[in-house]
Predict the structure of 40S ribosomal protein S19.
Amino acid sequence: MSETNLVYTVDPVSLITCINSHLSNNDLLTRPKYFNILKTSVGKQNAPIQNDWLYTRAASLLRKIACFSYKKSDNNYKNLLSKKTKSKDRSDYFNIMTILSTYGCKKDRGTRPGKKVRCNKTHIISILEDFKKLNWIKKTTDGHFLLTEAGLEFINEMVGKCQK
């Protein structure tokens, strides 16, 4: 993680688009059961309209993990991978609940006030398992998700493609 932070050098939309096209062209993700009718959150009424929404979500998730990993690289990345850390700062956490809250939405409850709900776990867990199989991410002992060296190489390769 000693390399320069390349994630922030390109536009997030173009990076997500590059990763999306790479994932979909090489068929690197397994689609969950009932993919075409799967809602992304309890607050949504229908499934997404786009056919490649899973790849876009995966690309966005990989970028978020990369940003978190780069942030942690400044604060002794190796120690975070090896032992448990006790921190009270919310920005230090990037576990499954943080991911679900990030991709959640506001639920329309009729005449009652809206309420923030998390996204569904099914497709997020499927994406994270696929990234683990590809050896792009690693889960620490306290539940954080961080990039591995292979994941860092992939992100840097995608950043290089986006800059051209």
